[in-house]
Amino acid sequence: MIRTIVKRLWLVPVVLVAWELATTAAANPFFPPPMLIASRMYEMWFSGPFLLTEEAVDNFGPSLVRVVGSWGAAVVLGVGLGVALGRTAWLADYIDPLVEFGRAVPPPAMLPVFLVLFQMGTQVQVATIVFGIIWPILLNSIDGARNVDHLQTDTATVFGLPRHLRLFRIILPAASPKIFAGLRLSVSLALILMVISELKGSTDGIGYLLSVASSNADMPAIWAGVVVLGVLGYAFNSLFLLAERRVLTWHRGARGTA
Amino acid sequence: MLEIDNLTHVYGPGSPNEHRAIEGLKLSVAEGELLCIVGPSGCGKSTLLRSIAGLITPTGGEIRVEGELVRQTPGNLAVVFQDYSRSLFPWMSVADNVALPLRRRNMDKRQRREAAQEALESVGLEGAGRKYPFQLSGGMQQRVAIARALAYRPSLMLMDEPFGSVDAQTREDLEDLVLKVRGHHQMTIVLITHDIDESVYVGDRVVVLSKAPAHVVGDLRVDLPGPRDQITTREHPDFVHLRAEVGRLVRGVPAQATSA
What we know:
A: mainly alpha, MetI-like fold, 12 helices, about 0% strand, B: alpha/beta, Rossmann fold, six-stranded mixed beta sheet, four-stranded antiparallel beta sheet, 10 strands, ABC transporter (chain B), ATP hydrolysis activity (chain B), P-loop_NTPase (chain B), ATP-binding (chain B), transport (chain B)
């Protein structure tokens, strides 16, 4: 256990030390040493009475609420719509080109539209994130629901399964490997869109912090924001993979012997 | 029990690749009978089974199960498909697979679990309930599919080449399993196979279908003495005679003797 952790992570401290040494030696204000970034993070966010400072709550709170809430909304909407479309063969044929087009639009391209529509605040972030990440979820849900094995649906028909069981015990599980492939894309995309939309259309959040620090040329604060975003991205991805592994255990097992 | 009258099914009628799968098929199965249907491959056996199960609507003719015209799957009918690896749900444990169809019956959770356990016992898989299908061998998976059908307590069980995907030894075990469970459960069984020996060994009666468009070309009663046994039954002169008879009918060679 400890050996594998050491084996996997030994390069991280090495890089940190090398970075510290190099930036201290160079003394370039645009590249502050990691220790300086860390102390800035501490005094900005983690020196409060209960660990977190007011600024930390201000910076992280809105961002987290937006990204998690928007992702949740996009999942419910995308999977729900996708499964409905996927199980309605004639409809899916018409919808397909639209979905393909929606997916092809680079997600940040819609930000100016939402800035005009909503000006500032959480609506801008929610709209940008949901519109940006729903396509891979939708596309994969359609695909997964459409390609449920006929023998599985026939079996459900023969045994007279009621509609809700058919949906929740047969269609959704059968489509879940595909659905999860779409969700995986959406997780990292959601974080990207959160930052982008906060840079422009927000008065709080991590993206807003970055944009303020950038206009003040406050390099340690910018880097602090970057580090937090990296940690956040890593945490989201790890949580997602954990959930995926639990839900899709059967899938890896079934494929292992196939 | 099961009455099929003048059944006809045409795929893509009117189109250039129109395929007449079944034409004017007439068949009747008595209560409690184990009927085997054999025919050359691609003759429309599966079309016939899917029509009885209400999975497709035949283009002509009538099917009645216990006097009721089949429009959708009758509630007292279960199917065991050939491809167990696709008809069992890989995301559910073995016990959940067996218990799921019972949601339709008026049973609470505990009753469903007990019924599933009982069915698994009757196919010799009492310890496998918590496993997942992929953790079992092919023969065991098909036993689970049979257990699922048994737990459902159908009065008519359809089996579509149920042993087509397992090895020879397992196949013999499963044949004997079907003979065993039919004794315990009062039900009619229609078993479709392309294996001539199997049809004679398992069946009370063997119906032979022609090449597509399928109709009945032979209907033989199997009167073999005593409980069937993989060794002694298969060397019995009546067995040898019957399998030759069925073989000739399947190949379309005129029969030498008729027995009805």
